[in-house]
Design goal:
With about 675 residues, the chain is of the alpha+beta class. It folds into 4 domains: about 5-170, Glutaredoxin (3-Layer(aba) Sandwich), CATH 3.40.30; about 180-320 and about 410-600, Glycosyltransferase (Alpha/alpha barrel); about 320-405, no CATH class; about 605-675. It contains 26 helices and 20 strands. The protein has a 4-stranded mixed β-sheet with strand order 2-1-3-4, sandwiched between helices. Strands 18-17-19-20 form a 4-stranded mixed β-sheet, with helices on both faces. β3 (about 105-110) and β4 form a beta hairpin. α12 (about 290-305) packs across α16 (about 415-435). The model has no long low-confidence stretch (mean pLDDT about 95).
Length: about 675
């Protein structure tokens, strides 16, 4: 079996390609030096290990000896895991989107030896289709052009690079005032795109994009818009009932290919589930509907069971494919269920999940699709009390059978960024739901990150750990997402040590990434020699951007600590993005949440006394049990702001609700605290 140098890597995505006949390099100086020395163009292939179409292109092209031979003779081929190196991905994705009008993975880009792109696209098929060349024909064309018109290509790459610099540049527009009107227009634009039938904001394919419904809820509170609240709650209900939600195992898939949330793209990502847990916590606080709390538990219990390292780190993702078929692990046929269940169980389950002989899913991406596949979704939620035991029994049998199927591939790398998002979700859930196992999971996760990805001496947070080894990459999103999660854990526990670590993270983030001249944060630290551009990421898509999360986290930390430098950096970042917030709200839904926080003095809930006493825990739980997104919860000891330190407990624990230096009369009664917050 052929083995290439990717066998030495830790990325599951790169390891998947370690036995291709392509002489792959990782993104490193060895590859760049070879391209320069041999004066060859670079073929850059970017994807991730749970990407279905990445598997397809590997099977069709990279596993083929003829393709490997041609690539090895005419190109230097580089593989990049976009989840390990989102900074590299961002640069070349911006190029592909700006030159082709679309993007996605696998991404295929051709570069000069000095890393400047001159042609790119996404998936290329193995044969000519729809007037487009096959992948091998494309390689032959580019190799010929490089051989015969190299100077023109290099000149074109220089010109395209100059255009890329212009596209990614962000100048502060100080003439754009940051007002509630920006929020109002943004929320209105989202509610106009609301799908009243299926829920969600937009059409197919449908991504949850939790930043958008979370912002709509904030806007609904600020502008007293009950209709907007109903839109979000309906969206939560429809997603929860859809095939995008794993009805047996918990957790959510990355997106649905249709408008009804029915047929998912089955891969499950840590970052989606972290954000969705936060959204369903908000939905629970606003509605009081226990179903939303149950969905939070469903997500977090899935993560604890299937995505958690024994030492506490959270894994990245599960694949869409198993045994070469997308969704095979998750789907069921009528015949299979009829055989497995009793007649009574089957009748209830078939009605509840909408099971049919023809099925509702066809895996079009496989040359021999499986017949009659049913994605489970809830089509009839009104199961009678008498039928509930039958449904529970059917689910139990189905879960037991599914547990013995061949599972999808697990991407077991642990990323500082996505772990920060999930840390925050566990911490917030522990505070809202009062469940100790979620607090324990959050504490254990932070301990893992501090032991394996945080360097105390250099105050550095590295991005990826896997198989006992961390990388040497530092990214804004790692610092920002971790900072956000640690702040949530502090607010859920009031342990001064967590606040101290949050301050360390924030200070390091400002030192390494902040642009003191114009505001905003660079995606990568200064001195990164392998990047042709230094970019400020300002797009909140499936994941929020580092700039957006950093801004909200710094505003919260400033309110907790009284640190003006944190607040100023956040305000300058908002101002840098003000024009984009006004003109393209869909691009920065998470940063609009930071704007919502910044517009008013946040309410401070100060718990004086022992937060770990029985009364202290009750007060802490009460403080988190009211939907009040623009509040912070803090203790009265440690590195908190000076005024909080002057407040003293009248018994073992007393709570003060304050704005500025004015507080409501203190109380030790949880019910009274809830009333004050409402």
């Amino acid at each position: 079996m052929f083995t290439n140098r990717l066998a030495r890597e830790k990325s599951p995505y790169l390891l998947q390609h370690a036995h291709n006949p392509v002489d792959w390099f990782a993104w490193n100086d060895e590859a760049f030096a070879k391209a320069r020395t041999e004066n060859k163009p670079i073929f850059l292939s970017i994807g991730y290990s749970t990407c279905h179409w990445c598997h397809v292109m590997e099977r069709e092209s990279f596993e083929q000896a003829s393709t490997g031979k041609f690539l090895n003779e005419h190109f230097v081929s580089i593989k990049v895991d976009r989840e390990e190196r989102p900074d590299v991905d961002k640069i070349y994705m911006t190029f592909v989107q700006s030159t082709t009008g679309s993007g996605g993975w696998p991404m295929s880009v051709f570069l000069t030896p000095d890393l400047k792109p001159f042609f790119g696209g996404t998936y290329f098929p193995p044969d000519a289709r729809y007037g487009r060349p096959s992948f091998l024909q494309l390689l032959e064309q580019i190799a010929g052009l490089w051989r015969e018109r190299k100077r023109e290509i290099v000149a074109s790459a220089d010109e395209l690079h100059a255009r890329l610099e212009l596209i990614t540049a962000r100048d502060p527009k100080v003439d754009v005032p940051l007002t509630p009107e920006i929020l109002k227009r943004a929320v209105a634009s989202f509610t106009e795109a609301y799908d009243a039938t299926n829920g969600g904001f937009g059409g197919a394919p449908k991504f949850p994009q939790p930043s958008i419904p979370a912002l709509v809820l904030r806007g609904a509170k600020r502008f007293h818009d009950a209709a907007a609240v109903k839109m979000v709650l309906h969206t939560c209900d429809r997603m929860n009932a859809g095939g995008i939600h794993d009805q047996l195992g918990g957790g959510f898939a990355r997106y649905a290919v249709d408008a009804e949330w029915l047929v998912p793209h089955f891969e499950k990502m840590l970052y989606d589930n972290a954000q969705l847990a936060q959204l369903y916590l908000d939905a629970f606080l606003i509605s009081g509907d226990a179903r939303h709390a149950d969905t939070v538990r469903d997500i977090l219990d899935y993560v604890l069971r299937d995505l958690t390292h024994p030492a506490g780190g959270f894994f990245s993702a599960e694949d869409a494919d198993s045994e070469g078929h997308e969704g095979k692990f998750y789907c069921w046929t009528k015949a299979e269920l009829s055989k497995l269940l009793t007649v009574e169980e089957y009748n209830v389950a078939a009605k509840y999940f909408g099971i049919t002989a023809e099925g509702n899913f066809v895996d079009h991406s496989h040359p021999a699709p499986l017949a009659g596949q049913n994605v489970l979704r809830v089509v009839c939620s009104g199961v009678t009390d008498a039928d509930q035991p039958l449904l529970a029994s059917a689910k139990s049998k189905m879960s037991a059978v599914r547990a013995n199927r061949i599972r999808p591939h697990l991407d077991d790398k642990i990323l500082a960024s996505w772990n920060g998002l999930m840390l925050g979700a566990f911490a917030h859930a522990a505070a809202v739901l009062g469940e100790e196992k979620y607090r324990a999971a959050a504490e254990k996760n932070l301990q893992f990150i501090r032991e394996n990805l945080w360097d105390k001496k250099s105050k550095s947070l590295f991005h990826r750990w896997r198989d006992g080894e961390r990388d040497t990459v530092e990214l804004l999103e790692g610092y920002a997402f971790q900072l956000s999660g640690v702040i949530e854990l502090y607010e859920a526990t009031l342990m001064p040590g967590h606040l101290d670590f949050a301050i360390e993270l924030a200070s390091a983030m400002l030192a390494k990434f902040y642009d003191a001249a114009d505001g905003g944060f660079w995606q990568s630290a200064a001195g990164s020699t392998d990047l042709i551009l230094r970019v400020k990421d300002d797009y909140d898509g499936a994941e929020p951007s580092g700039n957006s999360v950093a801004t909200l986290a710094l505003l919260k930390l400033a309110a907790i600590t009284g640190r003006e430098d944190f607040k100023q950096a956040a305000a300058a970042t908002l101002q840098l993005c003000a024009h984009r917030l006004q003109s393209q709200p869909a691009a920065l839904a998470f940063m609009l949440q930071a704007l919502d926080f910044w517009l008013d003095e946040p309410r401070r809930v100060v718990i004086a006394g022992d937060a770990n006493s029985a009364r202290g825990k009750e007060l802490l739980h009460a403080a988190h049990s009211v939907y009040q997104p623009n509040k912070i919860v803090l203790g009265h000891t440690g590195a908190v702001e000076p005024f909080a330190k002057t407040l003293t407990a009248k018994n073992d624990a007393t709570v003060f609700v304050c704005a500025g230096n004015a507080c409501q009369p203190p109380t030790s009664e949880p019910s009274q605290l809830r009333e004050l917050l409402r």
